[in-house]
Amino acid sequence: MSSLPAIALYQPDIPQNLGAIIRLCACSGFALHIIEPCGFPLDDARIKRVGMDYVANVQLSKHASWEEFCRYATGEAKQLLLFTTKSNTPYTAHAFSAQDILLFGRESAGVPEEVHQRVEHRLTIPMPGGGRSLNLAMSAAMVTGEALRQLV
User: Fold this and answer.
1) Which of 26, 62, 112, 145 has the most crowded Cβ, counting Cβ within 10 A?
2) Residue 57: which of 31, 83, 39 has the closest Cα?
3) E strand or H helix at 106
């Protein structure tokens, strides 16, 4: 069992972001969960292509649906943290733990309301410059850095 959180991507749209997050997970020691369906074909060959040689160093799990992922998270007593612009709680205010799964939504649409209702915490990355949103891989890296700062 890992002593670090995991990252989960809800129906990712952009394979290049998946590749960057695979690399992030390999370097940080975080596990990665992909919640399907994705906005691109996702098979082992494509994962290997976008993840390059880093994918071999990642504990990667694919979940066929949101419901399947929730069964996994409940069975493993994981705490879901949704990163969203629809929150006023900054991610730096959260005390991260190994039981956390850092959940990021689709690049094009975020997550549906049912996902918002299921998670334990909704956190945001403050954007005082007034931007609408950050790149998915950049957001995941910022939050991963904070979790590592707190836990390592």
Assistant:
1) 26
2) 31
3) none
Q: pLDDT of 34-73, one tens digit each?
A: 999 998 877 766 676 666 778 888 999 999 999 999 999 9
pTM over 0.90: yes
- What is the C-alpha separation between 86 and 125, in angstroms, rounded? 10
Q: How far is CA 134 from CA 2, 104, 116, in A?
A: 28, 12, 19
Cross-strand partners of 63? 35
Closest by Cα among 66, 59, 96 to 79: 96
Give SS3 for 102: strand
Nearest partner of 96 among 146, 34, 21, 22, judged by Cα: 146
Give the pair of three-digit tokens for residue 41: 């074909």
CATH topology (fold) of 6-151: Alpha/beta knot (3.40.1280)
List the structure tokens of 107.
Answer: 């690049």
The interaxial angle of helices 136-151 and 15-28, nearest 10 deg, is 10
10 Å CB burial of residue 98 (0-12, 13-18, 19+) is middle
What the block records as the tokens of 8 is 């989960």
Block residue for tokens 């969203």: 84
Model pLDDT, residue 1: 45
